[in-house]
Amino acid sequence: MFDWWGRAVVRARWAVLAAAVALMALGATWGTGVFGQLSGGGFADPASESSRTAERITAELGRQGADVIVLWSSDTATVDQPAFRDPVAATVAALRQRPEVDSVTTFYDAPAPHLVSTDRRATYALVQLDGVDEDARAEAFDAVRPAFDAPGLRTELGGAVAFQRYANEQTTEDITRAELLSMPVLLVLLVLIFGGLVAATTPLLVGGLAILGAFVAVRLLNMVTDMSIFAINVITLIGLGMAVDYALFVVSRFREELAAGRDTAEAVRRTMATAGRTVLVSGLTVALAMASLLVFPQPFLRSMGLGGMAAVLVAMLAALTVLPALLAVLGRRVDAVRVPVPWRRGAGRGRPAHADTSGAWARIARSVMRRPVPYLAGVALILGLLATPFLRAEFGGVDERVLPADAGPRVVSERIAAQFPGGTIAPIDVLVTGVPADAVGPFADRIAAVPGVTGVRVAATRGASTLLAVAYPGEPTGDAARDLVGDLRALPAPDGARVLVGGRPGVDRDLLDSLGDRLPWMALLMAGATLLLLFLAFGSVVLPVKAVLMNLLSIGASFGVVVWIFQDGHLSGLLGFTSTGFIEPSNVILMLAVLFGLATDYEVFLLSRVREEWDRTGDNTASVAAGLQRTGRIITAAALLLVIVVAGFATGAMAYIKLIGIGMIVAIVVDATLVRALLVPATMRLLGRWNWWAPGPLGAVYRRFGIRESDDPAGPGAGGAPEQAAPDAVEPEPAGPESRHPAFIG
What we know:
Layout: H1 2-11, H2 13-29, H3 49-61, E1 68-73, H4 82-96, E2 101-105, E3 122-129, H5 134-144, E4 154-158, H6 160-194, H7 197-222, H8 231-259, H9 264-291, H10 299-320, H11 322-330, H12 360-370, H13 372-387, H14 408-419, E5 428-433, H15 441-448, E6 455-462, E7 465-471, H16 479-490, E8 498-503, H17 504-538, H18 542-567, H19 572-575, H20 585-617, H21 620-647, H22 655-687, H23 696-705
Antiparallel strand pairs: 1-3, 1-4, 2-3, 5-7, 5-8, 6-7
Helix pairs in contact: 1-9, 2-7, 2-11, 5-6, 6-7, 6-21, 7-8, 7-10, 8-9, 8-10, 8-21, 9-10, 9-11, 9-17, 9-20, 12-21, 12-22, 13-18, 13-22, 16-17, 17-18, 17-20, 18-20, 18-22, 20-21, 20-22, 21-22
C-alpha cells in the first residue's frame, strides 16, 4: 500500500501542497475562532449524585451558592463603623443595579456571624451573577469586575467563578509563555540536528499544520458536543510534539535514501514504504491512547481526548501527505542553507540505510547485549526507586492552593478559613425533599451529631424542599470532607423524604469514584490497542507485551517523581508552589494517556528499524544494534525537542501546569535513555529469537494483514530457533533449517 502511496504523492505533490495551504488558511481564520466558543468547565460527572443535587437545588429552590465572594477589609475600621459600612453599602447598591448581577447578600442585610471576621475588620458578600451556565457567568464577571471595589477598603475577589476565571487566564498565560520561550530554542536545535535551515523548518511546518488543522476539527466537533477550552492546550502540546517526531523520522529516512544514490521520486517512495508505515502505526497508537480518555464521563477529559486525537491524526496525515509532497518538490535541496556543525562530521546529509552499524549507538547496544543481565538489573533498580513514591500517592480535588500565593481567590479562601466563624466557603449541600421544612429539624440535629460536622444551617427552603448547609473543619478537598460526605449519604432519610448530598466536597468524592471506576477500562483500551497495532506492525506477540511493560516502567518513574515533588512538597520553594498533600487525579490520567502514547511512539521508531534489519539478516543481535544505531539519534533528538516544548510548563504559575511539565520531562528523559537505549536492547538480547515469536494462526494473520515496514520479501529473518548465545559474547545468529518454523514469522 505505502509503496503505491509514495508514488501517488509524488505525482500529486502540487495538489497536495495546495490543499495544505488551503487548510492552513482555513485554520488560521475560521479554525482559530474556536477560542471564543469553547466551554471553561466540564470537570464534574453529569450522572453523579453531586451533579443531581445541584440540578435539583436549582430546579426546586433556585440557584444557590455564591458565584463570587467579595471580601472587604480594613486595617483601622470595623464593619460597624461608618468608614467601613458606608462604602460597602454604596458599592452593594450599585451592584444591585447592574444587569449582570442577580443578587448580593451581605452582613448588613441579614446579620449572620459567619459573614464577619472574628476581629470585625472584614466582611464578605455573596454575589450571584446572571447567566444560565458557567461561560455566561464568567462573561458577567468580566463585565462587573471593576464595580466590586469599595472606596477606602481593600477588596479581594474569590468564589467559584473568580477562581475558574483566574485559573483559566493564568493557565493560558503560562502556556503562551511556554510556547514563546520554546519556539526559538526549538528552531535552533532543529537547525543543529539537521545541519541545515531548510530541513529544520519542515517539522515546524508540519507542526503548524497539525495545530491549525486540529483547531478546525475541534470547532467542527464543538458543533455536535460541548468541548472544553483546555482541549486547546493538549492540541498545542501533542500536535507540535508528534509533528516534530514524525518529521524527524521521515526527513531522516528521505536523506538516507538520497545518500544511497536514489533519485527524488524513488527516495520518497522508499521513505513512505518504510518510515511512512512507522508513522502510520505510531499515529494510530497515540491516537488510540488519547481515545482512552473518552471512557470518562467528565466533558473536560473527553475534550482533551478528542483534541489530542485530532492533533495526532492531523500530524500523522500531514507527515504522510504534505511532508512527502514537499520533499518531492525539494529533492536534494532539502539540504540547502547548510549550517556548519563541527561535531556532526557530515552526518547531517544522511547515510545510506544499513551503511553504518558501528556507530556510537550500535556500540552502546552491543555493550548492553554483552552484559544484558547487569544492565537489566541496574536499570530496573533505578526505575523502581524512582517509582516507589507513587505507592503512597494520595488524590484530591483542585482547590485555590494551585494558584500563586498572592492570587485573589486563594487569599479570600485562606482568610475566610482562618479569620471567620465556620471557616469554609464550600459547605456540604444536603437537599431534603418531600417533607415540609419543620419536619427537617430532627434530621438536621442528626447531621449535627455526625463526627466532623461543626455546624448546620438552613440555607434555603421552598414548599417541600429544604437545603441544609453543613460546615466542617479543614479544606474542602481534604480526605475528612470527602469522608464526611460519605457519612452523610449513609444517614437514613426522614420518613417520606428523599435526601441528596452534594456541594464541593461531594463533587470531589464523586470525581474520584468516577475516575477510579473507569480507569481499568482506560487501561484495557490503551493496552489492547497497543498490543493489536504492534502485533500487526512487527508480527510478534512478545514485543507488544514487552512494549506495554516498558511504557509502564517509564510512566511509573514519572509518577513517582511527581508524588515526591508535588505531594510530599520537596522542591516547593525552588519551583514556587504550595504542596496540598495530594495529587489531582485528572492530571495524572491525562499524563497517563499522553505519556503512554509517546512511549509507544519511541518504541515503534526503534522496533521498526530492528524489524527491518531482522527481515534482511535474520540476526537478532545485529538487528538490535543496527536498529538502535539508525534510530538512537532520532529518538534522542525527538525527546530533546519535546522536552523543550514542555519545559516552559515547569515555569508556569499554576501548580498543575508545573506538575504536567515536570512529569512529562521525567518520563520523556527516562524513556529515551534508560528504557529505549538500555532496557530494550538488554531484554531483546535475553529473548533472542523469541522476540519474533507468534503462534501459527497469528503468524498467518500477520502474513496476510501485517503492516510491514518494508515491501521487500522476508529474508533470512523469516524465523529461527530461540537464541542460546553465551552472555559474554555477541555472535551472529545464522538462520538454519529451524528458522522456517511457523512460530517465527517473517
